Amino acid sequence: MATASSDTASTRIAPEFIAALDKFELSTLENEPGAVYALDRDLRLCYFNPAWFRFARDNNGEPAISARFTLGTPLEAAISGPLQPFYLDAYAQVLRDGTPWQHDYECSSDTVLRRFNQRSYPLANRAAVIVINSLTVEQPHPAPDAAGAAPDESLYRNSHGLLVQCSHCRRVERAVQPGHWDWVPAWVAAQPPRTSHSLCQPCYDYYYRFRHATPPATS
């Protein structure tokens, strides 16, 4: 297998991961333009490619991302909220069944709409699952009707003083109209204090409720 050339390889590539690689060359993952990470059989982070850190840096995620997501971090500590059980179950199934799995998701900023396709590949020896994220849509959000207007928190703070944001589409639920979710760019750019996370019903139904309705992708 190829060896990593990055000066920081020791902080992003676990030696066990290189030893376990069978169907992939390390150089393939290193040169992939999309963010790639891998999980060992205990669902702990064991690899990041350079594009993972480029994406974090370009989206103001560093140095927090490097500090929070270190080698050996359990997935359950890296993903919180309502998405945690979904991904824990999905990756465990990939390792258990030895079958690739794919999933579409959104990761937008306050100004840019981004959608990604994620493909998860188990190694033949079931020692790890490799997760490759590919950008499928990137375009500016439509200009808001009231550009520059500060959002009115009184419309969104619930009886517990919390803002509730969808973990998938990043919209915020109206406290005065439960079930009505709004796109609030200012709160995507900078999340306010006391923000909680849930899933709006459309995202839950479309992306998360029916995951087992069709067999996993095999190519």
Task: Tell me what the structure shows.
It is a single chain. With about 220 residues, the protein is an alpha+beta fold. It folds into two domains: about 10-140, 2-Layer Sandwich (Beta-Lactamase), CATH 3.30.450.20; about 155-200, no CATH class. About 30% of the residues lie in helices and about 25% in strands. The protein has nine helices and nine strands. The protein has helices at about 10, 15-20, 25-30, 50-60, 65-70, 75-80, 85-95, 185-190, 200-210; strands spanning about 35-40, 45-50, 100-105, 110-120, 130-140, 165, 170-175, 180, 195-200. The strands form three sheets. Strands 2-1-5-4-3 form a five-stranded antiparallel beta sheet. Strand 4 (about 110-120) and strand 5 (about 130-140) form a beta hairpin. The protein is elongated. Mean pLDDT is about 85; it is low at about 1-5 and about 210-215.
List the keywords.
219 residues; alpha+beta; Beta-Lactamase; 5-stranded antiparallel beta sheet; two-stranded parallel ribbon; 9 helices; disordered N terminus
The number of domains: 2
Mean pLDDT: 87
CATH class of the largest domain: Alpha Beta
**Class per helix and strand makeup:** alpha+beta
- CATH homology superfamily of the largest domain: PAS domain
Query: Gyration radius, to the nearest Å?
Result: 19 Å
How are the strands ordered across the major sheet?
A: 2-1-5-4-3
Order of helices and strands: HHHEEHHHHEEEEEEHEH
Level-2 CATH architecture of the largest domain: 2-Layer Sandwich
Uncertain segments of ≥5 residues (pLDDT<50)?
Answer: 1-7, 212-216
How many DSSP-defined strands?
9
- Main beta-sheet strand count, sense and barrel state: 5 strands, antiparallel
Distance between the ends? 23 Å
Provide the CATH topology of the largest domain: Beta-Lactamase
- Strand composition percent: 15-25%
